[in-house]
Q: What sequence folds into this?
């Protein structure tokens, strides 16, 4: 009689794919599969069940090869990874935290790594600032256009610098060009 190898998770087996007992008390035989498996938040490392990384709900083959992401974590599953969605950053915990609302993506809550161009913002020293010719609106995160006379402004009409291509100069008292 020729003995066959069992799967690495089996202590004893009927054949390669049908365990009768598991090698570790951490493993359980899943009905229907016949193999000894770790619980869903762990993976088998050929000697023991180990926990998936914090960013994975379930994993396979390694702690960082995700098969699904934690619910309500602001994470998106793609190709075995669970990365933070747009507008969120990885703080080292299950739930991705929100970037400040002017950032499209960020490394930390206030350190932007990219800006949403549709909001008329550009990245400068980790901040999403209004483009030249636009100002911060109090009512929305979208930068709104200055008057055509202004190069930069604090509101639609009050210029902080003038559009010199129109041969205009700033009146510092009135804020008009």
A:
């Amino acid at each position: 009689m020729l003995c066959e190898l069992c799967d690495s998770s089996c202590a004893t087996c009927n054949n390669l794919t049908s365990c009768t007992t598991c090698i570790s008390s951490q493993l359980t035989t899943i009905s229907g599969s016949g193999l000894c498996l770790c619980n869903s938040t762990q993976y088998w490392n050929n000697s023991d069940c180990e926990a998936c990384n914090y960013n994975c709900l379930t994993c396979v083959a390694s702690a960082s090869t995700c098969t699904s992401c934690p619910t309500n974590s602001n994470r998106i599953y793609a190709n075995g990874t669970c990365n933070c969605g747009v507008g969120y950053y990885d703080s080292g915990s299950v739930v991705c935290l929100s970037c400040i609302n002017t950032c499209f993506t960020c490394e930390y809550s206030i350190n932007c790594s990219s800006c949403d161009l549709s909001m008329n913002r550009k990245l400068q020293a980790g901040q999403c600032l209004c483009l030249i010719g636009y100002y911060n609106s109090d009512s929305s995160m979208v930068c709104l256009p200055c008057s055509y006379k202004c190069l930069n402004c604090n509101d639609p009409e009050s210029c902080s610098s003038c559009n010199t291509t129109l041969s205009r100069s700033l009146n510092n008292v009135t804020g008009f060009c």
About this structure: The chain has no helices and 20 strands. The CA atoms of residues 27 and 38 lie 5 Å apart. The two ends are 99 Å apart (CA to CA). The mean pLDDT is 87.
